[in-house]
Write a structure and sequence with these properties.
TIM Barrel; globular; alpha/beta
């Protein structure tokens, strides 16, 4: 029997799970996943996450507009966006604001468009920071090719890093140390199982045991043994096993530490 682990970042409401959502959830619970946090990326998925959390006591929800979902709110004012997110966040099963942040990966090389896109993303991220402060909720951060700007905005808005987790960690150990030294957390997923992900593996091996938790980001990023397949919460066990190997410890110890960290961070 696998030890109990929390999948702190899943997208079970995505269409990849339309045909067998309940079966996937039950399989997770039967294989050592005792809690799942389902992550909102726009108004629709935030509501679906809340709906899922209402059906399953072991599932919790987050609420946000992902930076790549900014087009879904382009005709709405900041006030309207804030009001809608605030109403969604009032549900008792909502445990964080996220995933929100900055993603510069796909921005066009044209400098004018790049500048405008970055400015829009930063304004949206600042709105989420304000919302999390208002509601005293933690932030689940999406950061891709944007680490310095994310850290600078959090610092500028005086948001406590003790209530910040960088999900799907893909940066190096030095950057992880910057987050952890400020009191923040990182979340590791199956990227750590990929043979060429040396920086993530080094981070997983070296960071303080009190500073990270586990996730799948399903249906994306399946572990190495299931590359090309749909990811699901039960697969977090493979990630945990790999991290245990990297840290020269046991799966049970990784499960105990990450469950403790996530439970405290999200106040589950």
């Amino acid at each position: 029997m696998n030890p109990l682990i929390i999948d702190t970042h899943a997208h079970l409401d995505f269409k990849a799970f339309n045909a067998d959502q309940n079966g996937v959830i039950q399989n997770a619970f039967q294989n050592g996943i005792n809690k799942i946090i389902n992550i909102g990326v726009n108004f629709e998925t935030s509501q679906k996450s809340i709906d899922l959390s209402t059906v399953y006591p072991q599932i919790y929800a987050t609420v946000a507009i992902h930076p790549e979902e900014i087009i879904t709110i382009e005709r709405q004012t900041e006030k309207e966006v804030m009001e809608k997110l605030t109403v969604l966040s009032s549900n008792k099963k909502v445990v964080a604001i996220g995933e929100c942040g900055l993603d510069y990966f796909y921005l066009r090389k044209d400098e004018t468009n790049r500048r405008l896109n970055i400015e829009r993303q930063q304004k949206l991220f600042a709105l989420h920071i304000k919302l999390a402060k208002n509601l005293n909720l933690p932030l689940v951060i999406h950061s891709r090719d944007a680490f310095t700007d994310v850290v600078n905005l959090l610092t500028e808005h005086k948001f406590p890093f003790s209530k910040v987790v960088f999900h799907s960690w893909s940066y190096n150990f030095k950057k992880a140390q910057q987050v952890i030294e400020k009191g923040g957390f990182i979340s590791l997923n199956a990227i750590a199982t990929y043979p060429n992900a040396k920086e993530v593996q080094e981070t997983a091996a070296k960071i303080d045991e009190k500073s990270f938790f586990l996730e799948t980001d399903c249906p994306f990023l399946p572990p190495q043994s299931k590359r090309g397949q749909r990811n699901e919460p039960s697969n977090v066990i493979e990630t945990a096993s790999k991290i245990a190997e990297l840290r020269r410890t046991t799966l049970e110890q990784i499960a105990t530490n990450t469950t403790y960290n996530a439970t405290n961070f999200f106040q589950l």
